């Protein structure tokens, strides 16, 4: 069981980060090991604490939930402040990709950015310069002396970073992906490749090879020399070797040639 100060701090943080009014039941479910009645009592104490005059915000009940909002008496001052704010920065996917390359490879030149992304990056870099998220950082001492780019102070402010050392590493990105998508999406599912191949394909050591699907042999048309239906004809003995049939009554072998009647040797 949490102490009173920690419990009130958790309730305050949950209401603060929630984009919509959060209900008491949701708060109680989020805090494991705490009963609903105790969470409710500490929430009411927290509401009373923020109603004091030394707080500029308070906790209001909105649509069956709780939400932080500014107090009415500070409306005029807050309105002037909000009007002075710059509009939020909106970045496209190419801009975010380019900004990530600059952040992790800085200082970096435009040809190096284009080599990593595989597309032209002049327009995107120009947009990032206009939004003051990147700045120039001299020229690289190579042929052509291309301009070097690095992130700016506004970049740190926009992403809430103390310095560039707080940028997440690749390992941290992988861990966040596992938490967001689930570890099963990052591993190869069992049994892949063990199922039967599609018709006309067989798995081989080097991949998939095409094969002709098995089919039943087509019936052979009857020729004019075939006996009419309903008459019986003695079939020749089955050959025991290529080109040789079983011996006849006189003991001598007969040689069979396709298309010719067998002739007994004298």
Give your account of this protein's structure.
This protein is of the alpha+beta class and 266 residues long. Among the domains are: 4-83, Arc Repressor Mutant, subunit A (Orthogonal Bundle); 93-166, Arc Repressor Mutant, subunit A, CATH 1.10.10.10. Helices cover 36% and strands 14% of the residues. The chain contains nine helices and nine strands. The protein has helices at residues 4-17, 24-30, 36-50, 75-84, 93-105, 110-117, 122-130, 153-159, 170-181, and strands at residues 57-62, 65-70, 108-109, 134-139, 147-151, 201-204, 207-210, 254-255, 263-264. It has a three-stranded antiparallel sheet. Strands 1-2 form a two-stranded antiparallel sheet. A two-stranded antiparallel sheet has the order 6-7. Helix 1 (4-17) crosses helix 3, helix 2 (24-30) crosses helix 3 (36-50) and helix 5 packs across helix 7 (122-130). The termini are far apart.
């Amino acid at each position: 069981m949490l102490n009173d100060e920690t419990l009130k701090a958790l309730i305050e943080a949950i209401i603060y980060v929630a984009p919509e009014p959060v209900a008491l039941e949701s708060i109680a479910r989020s805090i494991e090991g705490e009963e609903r009645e105790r969470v409710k009592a500490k929430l009411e104490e927290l509401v009373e604490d923020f109603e004091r005059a030394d707080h500029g915000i308070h906790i209001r009940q909105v649509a069956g939930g709780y939400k932080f909002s500014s107090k009415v008496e500070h409306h005029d001052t807050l309105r002037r402040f909000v009007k002075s704010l710059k509009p939020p920065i909106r970045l496209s996917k190419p801009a975010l990709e380019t900004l990530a390359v600059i952040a992790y490879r800085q200082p970096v030149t435009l040809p190096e950015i284009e080599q990593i992304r595989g597309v032209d990056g002049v327009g995107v870099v120009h947009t990032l310069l206009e939004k003051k998220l990147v700045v120039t950082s001299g020229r690289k001492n190579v042929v052509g002396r291309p301009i070097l780019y690095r992130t700016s102070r506004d970049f740190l402010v926009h992403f809430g970073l103390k310095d560039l050392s707080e940028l997440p590493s690749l390992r941290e990105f992988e861990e966040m992906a596992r938490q967001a998508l689930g570890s099963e999406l990052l591993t190869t599912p069992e049994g892949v490749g063990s199922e039967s191949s599609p018709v006309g394909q067989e798995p081989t050591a080097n991949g998939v090879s095409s094969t002709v699907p098995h089919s039943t042999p087509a019936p052979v048309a009857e020729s004019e020399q075939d006996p009419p239906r309903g008459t019986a004809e003695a079939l020749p003995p089955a050959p025991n070797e290529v080109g040789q049939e079983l011996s006849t009554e006189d003991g001598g072998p007969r040689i069979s040639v396709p298309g010719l009647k067998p002739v007994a040797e004298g």
